[in-house]
Design brief:
- The longest helix has 20 residues.
- This protein has 16 helices and 13 strands.
- The protein starts with a helix and ends in a 5-residue tail after the last helix.
- Helix 9 crosses helix 10 and helix 13 packs antiparallel against helix 14.
- Strands 1, 2, 3, 4, 5 and 9 form a six-stranded mixed β-sheet that branches. A five-stranded mixed β-sheet has the order 6-7-8-11-10, with helices on one face.
- It is elongated and about 75 Å long.
- With 399 residues, it is of the alpha+beta class.
- It has three domains: 116 residues, Roll (Nuclear Transport Factor 2, Chain: A); 109 residues, no CATH class; 123 residues, no CATH class.
- The protein is 43% helix and 17% strand.
């Protein structure tokens, strides 16, 4: 008889005679430990990167970092992750973080921790993180941000590395302005700025306040100080590129190497302290800034701007200043927005005829300029019909 057949019959008979119940079967099997799936962190580590050499420190940093990254992605940053004081102190840094907030998406690329090191023997850590986004060609870097982690309760808190990165800057006080700078310093420029600041505060009826003025030589230095190592949305820096206020107006930062950068200071100052009713007309505010501080990075003064407009009018005799004004940012002369510069000419004229209070009335002519031409006509007798001719007269060379 076939041996395989005999064996199969024997097995069947054995099972039929002594079947095991489910309970008996479970008692005879070795117990199996239940293994819970470990929750993956909301980030990845670059090859060779560790939070800290000490395993306990690395674990604590990793746990706190996971909570902070999750809060950033969900737009739920709290005092536990970044202190309320640091959120206010470094609002520029916080703006970069808040732009990272996204709805949870399993297909999104995880943040990549590039490196972590301690500048003080393990007390705090500087952690560089690349925030990625998926593209057809593969993951691409959106931002690289550096965090300064320091002990808090039983873990770590995070903040901008601004204080650490600026700790070695030289410092010098000029009246109510405390300057922070790398090497060279133009005291005459600083004194002129301090005088303007004090006078302008008095004109708008605000008390004189102390100001920390950080004068970086380049825009890249500004970014590096804040911990914004790279930002693909600001490669050309078309916004907040020259100077801005931070820490609720207590700090002014510029990457122009200019101790007298009135242009962006005035714009931020008015937006912060003179816009309670939300009625500031931005083009005219920029015009005021150009009049008082010179236009933008080059600092072209009012007479230089008039000369540029005369040359442009000679080259384009059919140009209409009213049409150019209404084009907004679509019109520029010598890379200066036309409606900003025209506003500077109007600011000078109103100031000469009526004084600063009337200038402020024109500045408060509505967010979209709803009352701008009506107010202008009541002050200077100029309407839209004769706007071009009036501006042409303003830019004429003095005899």
């Amino acid at each position: 008889m076939n041996k395989d057949f005999i064996l199969s019959v024997f097995i069947a008979a054995t099972l039929a005679v002594s079947p095991l119940s489910a309970s008996e079967s479970s008692q005879t099997q070795a117990p199996v430990d239940k293994v819970e799936a470990k929750e993956l962190p909301p980030y990845e580590m670059n090859r060779g990167a560790v939070f800290a050499e000490d395993e306990l420190l690395a674990a604590a940093l990793g746990e706190s970092f996971s909570a902070m990254i999750t809060a950033v992605q969900n737009g739920e940053i709290t005092d536990r992750h970044i202190s309320t004081e640091d959120q206010q102190r470094h609002s520029f840094f916080m703006g970069a973080l808040r732009r990272l907030a996204t709805d949870p998406d399993p297909s999104s690329a995880l943040p990549l921790v590039l490196k972590s090191f301690s500048p003080d023997g393990g007390k705090s850590f500087l952690i560089s993180v690349a925030f990625m986004s998926p593209h057809e060609q593969g993951n691409q870097i959106e931002k690289i941000i550096e965090f300064h982690a320091y002990p808090y309760v039983d873990g770590y808190r995070f903040r901008s590395p601004f204080e650490y990165r600026t700790r070695t800057l030289d410092m010098l006080e000029v009246d109510e302005v405390r300057y922070h700078f790398q090497s060279s310093f133009d005291r005459a420029q600083a004194e002129e700025f301090a005088r303007f600041k004090k006078d302008f505060e008095a004109r708008v009826g605000m008390p004189t306040t102390d100001l920390e003025y950080f004068c970086f030589e380049t825009l890249d230095e500004v970014l590096r100080a804040y911990g914004i190592v790279y930002d693909c949305t600001r490669c050309n820096w078309l916004k907040e590129d020259l100077g801005f206020m931070d820490n609720d107006g207590r700090v002014f930062v510029t990457g122009t190497g200019n101790e007298r950068f009135i242009f962006d200071y005035l714009v931020d100052y008015m937006s912060r302290y003179c816009d309670d009713d939300g009625d500031l007309y931005p083009p005219f505010v920029y015009g005021m800034a150009a009049y008082y501080g010179g236009y933008g990075l080059g600092g072209d003064d009012i007479e230089t701007l008039k000369s540029q407009f005369r040359d442009e009018l000679a080259a384009r005799p059919d140009m209409n200043f009213l049409e150019e004004f209404h084009k907004g940012r679509k019109s520029s002369i010598r890379r200066h927005f036309t409606y900003f510069v025209i506003s500077a000419f109007l600011c000078e004229e109103v100031l000469d005829r009526h004084g600063f209070d009337e200038v402020m009335k024109l500045a408060r002519s509505g967010r979209s300029g709803e009352q701008f031409f009506e107010t202008l006509e009541s002050m200077l007798g100029v309407g839209e019909d004769d706007f071009h001719e009036f501006i042409t007269q303003l830019i004429r060379e003095d005899d």
